[in-house]
């Protein structure tokens, strides 16, 4: 099941990168939850996708570079950097670690996301 969940994690991330919200929903269980590190609690996949859709209007391009992906039965941990350019000319990186947990059917049932946006040039300071 580890490889299957890895594949689903990749499908999910690539779908977000390509702004394919329907495909992002596909590997997720209907009752899947998302937790973010900003302290606002959990949200459903639908609430999370709506949030991403709301933000995507200002994003001109987004590309994920995977740094590492670790797995064991029922879970995958991925560390990646999202390279983002906004329609307003801002560029930066989203440094993130995402834990994917699966249900008994192998669908993604929970995502825990830790992320930090770093504006371009801020790493050089």
What does this molecule look like?
The chain is an alpha+beta fold. The chain has one domain: Nuclear Transport Factor 2, Chain: A, CATH 3.10.450. It is 26% helix and 50% strand. It is built from three helices and six strands; from the N terminus they run ααββαββββ. It has helices at 2-17, 21-25, 45-56, and strands spanning 28-36, 42-44, 59-72, 75-86, 91-102, 108-119. A six-stranded mixed β-sheet has the order 2-1-6-5-4-3. The longest helix has 16 residues, at 2-17. The protein starts with a helix and ends in a 6-residue tail after the last strand. The model has no long low-confidence stretch (mean pLDDT 89).
Keywords for this entry:
125 residues; alpha+beta; Nuclear Transport Factor 2, Chain: A; six-stranded mixed beta sheet; 26% helix
Q: Number of folding domains?
A: 1
Question: Can you write the helix and strand succession as a string?
Answer: HHEEHEEEE
Helix amount: 25-40%
Task: State the total count of DSSP E strands.
Answer: 6
Gross geometry? globular
Largest sheet: 6 strands, mixed
- Cα distance, first to last residue? 43 Å
Whole-number mean pLDDT: 89
Helix count equals: 3
* Computed Rg: 14 Å
What percentage of the residues does DSSP assign to strands (E)?
over 45%
Under the CATH scheme, which architecture would be assigned? Roll
Secondary structural class: alpha+beta
Low-confidence runs (pLDDT<50, min 5 residues)? none
Strand order of the largest sheet: 2-1-6-5-4-3
- The CATH class: Alpha Beta
**CATH topology, what is it called?**
Nuclear Transport Factor 2, Chain: A
């Amino acid at each position: 099941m580890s490889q299957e969940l890895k594949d689903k994690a990749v499908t999910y991330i690539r779908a977000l990168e390509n702004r394919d919200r329907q495909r992002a929903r596909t590997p997720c269980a209907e009752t899947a939850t998302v937790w973010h590190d900003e302290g606002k609690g959990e949200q459903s996949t639908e609430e999370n996708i709506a949030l991403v859709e709301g933000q995507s209007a200002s994003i001109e391009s987004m590309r994920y570079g995977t740094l590492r992906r670790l797995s064991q039965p029922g879970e995958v941990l991925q560390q990646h950097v999202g390279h983002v350019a906004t329609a307003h000319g801002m560029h930066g990186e989203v440094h993130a670690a995402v834990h994917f947990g699966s249900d008994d059917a192998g669908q993604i049932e929970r995502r825990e996301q830790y992320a930090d946006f770093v504006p371009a040039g801020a790493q050089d300071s």
